[in-house]
């Protein structure tokens, strides 16, 4: 058991190394990872400024923009990654080794998180400097805890999505697309979800990103402490084992189905 | 204990409208430790399917398969620790990373420590003579360099059973020769190691393999040493004929005319000749063939009796050349 965990961590480290080193080797990553995402945030921030919205709304948008980049990374960087691994023949080479698939996905998650964190930090930095967004430093510890919990929950969800790509390859894109716009809508990317009717608020609260984003906003913009955010922490802490268990089961099931149907190494589908 | 053992191994795939295609049908093979075992067959014969099952990438529909005694279905992780697979023309790895970095990545998948991983990478670079391109990105390598890298990757875990799927496919003569030399060296260095080789090249199989299985439409149609296989046609005669002109369907026409089913034809536009290779039962039958050709308006340039080769065994069993299938 211990050696299995050690192997998983080694694999995760190696895959993260490839992702970070390979991903940042071409300087063009600055354009894709930092400059372009900033434009979307800037356009919403300018809209709020022209409409004369309260200053807190700018901080709201900046945090939303930073957090949504993690969601994009989860669905397109992590879920989709197994599709590319399969197409390039790397999945086949991986699957003949004793390395656990979870290690590969964890490595992708960590590597992806590193790159996305650069993107998120640049959004926060530019938002603070250019749009004068202000944050409450006393909320940092609570924000950090909620951020970590949100990431674990989100990347567990990413493993579920990855298992769909493992089996269905390109068809998995549809599933990822289904998860992109509705979650952007429901998570309150640029607005508080309190504007929704109660039923939709409840539905939105089942998404870890919504809870995480709301918790971080409350801590960094309104100065809430950990006690004030206890329900956020509890909700995320409950979601994590559920999603992690679901991810493991889905991965095992999809791997088995893919081996039965001969899809594990099937390309161009 | 055998290195590889399959018992009544079958694999089907569902195609359009639920039609079943048999990729493997009741395959029984036993490969001993230290053997270079060849699997010969045309495209679609089931070679890669068999390797994928043995490498735990695909489940069999029925039957059993064991690698070093481990069940490929129930003990997949144990199998994965002792095997590796290298395919010709494969380009696995990350193009933006160097050869060294890619190899190090693969050492981690086998749980080597960082230091041991880098040591192994250095050893493999030396073994395969890759010093000149070890620091070059994978997406900038030539086909020959890629195949050396692939072999290095295949040796990362020092596998006890190495599957080589068309390892010299598309390589120039020198690199192919180098790879064949390396295959022999790998067995010499570790007599416990087994190499399971699939190839299109008869000469390669004859040169390297201790035993060969011929697979056709998912079934093993012959199994034995190259000499044993050649003995299968020792009572028959092999003729080589040259006919003036380009006739791509001449082999088919001879079969239709009721002559031997073991006939292959190849046209060469540079010489303007069509060559035939036929396995016949007697000299009289050869005369009949020549008579038929002349009577049908073909101009026979030459006819000669040749030594039977593995190619002819294949021709007799399958009814065509590997490349024609």
Features:
heterodimer; A: 269 residues; 11 helices; globular; B: 325 residues; alpha/beta; Rossmann fold; Alpha-Beta Plaits; 2 domains; 4-stranded antiparallel sheet
Helices and strands, with pairings:
The complex is a heterodimer of chains A (269) and B (325).
Chain A: H1 2-23, H2 29-50, H3 56-79, H4 81-87, H5 90-95, H6 101-130, H7 140-168, H8 172-186, H9 198-204, H10 208-222, H11 230-261
Helix pairs in contact in A: 1-6, 2-3, 2-6, 3-6, 3-7, 3-8, 3-10, 4-7, 6-7, 7-8, 7-10, 7-11, 10-11
Chain B: E1 4-14, E2 20-31, E3 36-40, H1 47-54, E4 62-67, E5 70-71, H2 76-82, E6 83-87, H3 99-109, H4 114-127, H5 143-154, E7 161-165, H6 173-189, E8 194-199, H7 202-208, E9 211-216, E10 219-224, H8 226-231, E11 237-244, H9 250-256, E12 263-268, E13 273-280, H10 283-295, E14 299-306, H11 310-318
Parallel strand pairs in B: 3-8, 3-9, 6-7, 7-8
Antiparallel strand pairs in B: 1-2, 1-4, 4-5, 9-10, 11-13, 11-14, 12-13
Helix pairs in contact in B: 3-4
In short:
The complex is a heterodimer of chains A (about 270) and B (about 325). With about 270 residues, chain A is mostly helical.
Give a description of the structure.
The complex is a heterodimer of chains A (269) and B (325). Chain A has 269 residues and is mainly α. Chain A is built from 11 helices and no strands. Chain A has helices at residues 2-23, 29-50, 56-79, 81-87, 90-95, 101-130, 140-168, 172-186, 198-204, 208-222, 230-261. The longest helix of chain A is centred in the C-terminal third of the chain and has 32 residues, at 230-261. By secondary structure, chain B is of the alpha/beta class. The radius of gyration of chain B is 22 Å and the shape is globular. In chain B, the strands form 3 sheets. Chain B has a 6-stranded mixed β-sheet, with helices on both faces. In chain B, helix 3 (99-109) crosses helix 4.
Oligomer: heterodimer
Give the radius of gyration of chain B. Answer: 22 Å
Number of strands of chain B: 14
What does the overall shape of chain A look like? Answer: globular
| Major protein interface | A-B, 31 and 31 residues
- Helix/strand order of chain B: EEEHEEHEHHHEHEHEEHEHEEHEH
Count of helices of chain A? 11
**What profile does the largest beta sheet of chain A have?**
none
Q: Structural class, from secondary structure content of chain A?
A: mainly alpha
Strand order of the largest sheet of chain B: 6-7-8-3-9-10
Mean pLDDT over all positions of chain B: 90
What are the segments of chain A in which pLDDT stays under 50 over at least 5 consecutive residues?
none
The third-level CATH topology of the largest domain in chain B is Rossmann fold
What is the CATH C level class of the largest domain in chain B, in words?
Answer: Alpha Beta
Number of helices of chain B: 11
- The beta-strand count of chain A equals 0
- From the alpha-carbon coordinates, what is the Rg of chain A to the nearest angstrom? 19 Å
How far is it from the N-terminal to the C-terminal residue of chain A, by CA? 36 Å
> Total domains of chain B, how many?
2
Percent strand of chain A equals under 5%
